[in-house]
Amino acid sequence: xxxxxxxWIYQYYNEEARREFxxxxxxxxxxxxxxxxxxxxxxxVVRVLTDNTLGRLWLEMQxxxxxxTSNPDNADGGSKIVESRIGLPxxxxxxxxxxxxxxxxxxxxxxxxxxxxxxxxxxxxxxxKSVRDIKLLDPACGxxxxxxxxxxxxxxxxxxxxxGTAESDIPGLVLEHNLFGIxxxxxxxxxxxxxxxxxxxxxxxxxxxxxxxxVVADARIIDGERRDNFLRQFDEDLPLKKLCAKLLEDxxxxxxxxxxxxxxxxxxxxxxDRKEKLRQAEQASLPGLASDSEQLVLEGIVPQxxxxxxxxxxxxxxxxxxxxxxxxxxxxFATEAEKSVxxxxxxxxxxxxxxxxxxxxxxxKKAKEYCRSQFPTTANDVYACFIEQAxxxxxxxxxxxxxxxxxxxxxxxFETLRRDIILDKCAPVMLLDCGxxxxxxxxVRTAATILHCSTxxxxxxxPAHRNMCTFFRLIDVxxxxxxxxxxxxxxxxxxxxxxxxIMDVNDFNLVPTSPFIYWGSKKLFKLFSKHxxxxxDLAERSHGKRIASLxxxxxxxxxxxxxxxxxxxxxxxxxxxxxxxxxxxxxYEIFYSxxxxxxxxxxNGQEIKEHPQSYVRNESFYxxxxxxxxxxxxxxxxxxLLPPGCIIGDRTPLISPAVxxxxxxxxxxxxxxxxxxxxxxxxxxxxxxxx
Length: 691
Fold this sequence. Notes:
4-stranded antiparallel sheet; EC 2.1.1.72; site-specific DNA-methyltransferase (adenine-specific); 19 strands; SAM-dependent_MTases_sf; 9-stranded mixed sheet; nucleic acid binding; transferase
């Protein structure tokens, strides 16, 4: 595909640098992040996410959004699609329909967005707005793949909404009013600008691009005399001077955090000061002295956008004066600072649609510190911070479309993200569980998710509208066949598709940590609240009989130094109260296993305890008999006997039973328990909290 060429070239342009970084084994810096996190989004995933966010937004506005409802004419129950789109090929003509799915070239949103998925229940009424007022943001835009495809959709929206506008003018309007992108990588943004320019030229070869809303968040602002000289422009407005100084201080980290920058806390004291001045002015004003509107202009609350414009103009003025003096240092300071104000302007707007494939995992030290401070509930992974930030910049009833790691669906560390953001504020409406292989070169399980942002102001929607989500299971499909399988699902005439599940996401709250276990049933979900957990303390239950205590064990901090195999040491030095103590192996076994691993516990583990990277957990449970398992295993956890006299590890925890041992062993190795554990495991990590 022509639109994909630039992005693929850039991904492989970084391939050698990515290999060098992995080989070096060092912690990432701000300059490393664009290289190690640059993974191109496949075109079919871009289509799925865009068609079902931007395309859905438009079809809802026009009253042509198809949906699934119950079928009263079917004796066996079932559902049917209520189709309102115009000009679609007949699904019964399989060859024509399949060709349309693969190569949509329609002149309307209806016929162009062929990867659109009808959802359960009729969508709520959506207020119409001019296409010029629809804003779409990619906060980690890379080479602009989402933006380029969204351009095609927006072009068709303009043709319908503004039939009187010359088609040659539409490309410029799309670039000026609708598309916004942010990235920390200058080269990627330059390629995004090129891709958008070429896309606009494909519609109008003579176009003169006036404006591109692309921001490079790579500013490097330095302190010193030039910063102080710039701030003197605000001496007559000390609160604004203080605000600007704080912004410049924080914006030194722009290269590390990009579009994750949070602005509200900085503006809050500034506007509080303005409110207080307004209150004092109202009390002191005399009749005829000033009108209410004049009073607001003189002493009122300056809107956030206007404040940023004022700061931006100050940078322009500072730059003009520097050019007159030929002061290159001041010119550079102003240019770098202007980049940051462009970033601030972008993240203070509200967007109807946010589309993104955010970075995963690795963060620089400064970025980690910033995320812990500003995103305390999601700071465990950078992509989770992007999800939280996306909600903050998305308008009420807007859509978020994202390709992320699927770890947020199951892992306990993402419980707050699931409960407090995704399930509470952004009702998920569609999710493709893609598995491995979607991102070329990245060994990560991914999910393509559509979120419908909702707040207390639109909670009047019925539960059926807010909570039903359509899931597609593609994790077991080969990498090269995932798109074809998805196309086949859309081609199936029956509304009940083999890999499709429609369920109420509120049911996930019946299970501890609210995992997205769409393959389970509500009856099984209820078992978790009906029956006692293994460890009532670990599950934070105030009632129920204790079945067992589950405890993690020792992390040595240096296994090469403190671990040995039995044939490497004198057999007389092995045993409790001796130097070398048995430790269970972290391998998959079932019912029973023999370990050849030993740990140095000389002098009650004094040498290990003095090691700075060691972690001695639950020492009072060492040497006890019970059960253990491998915390990481591609199979089941493998519950097996743990003989007395062993030291449990972090990867081989302890189950200390309060019930008969053999019966518990049989139950924990049952196929039912393995199935239930899959509700929490991703991917095959059998944590203490899971059991």
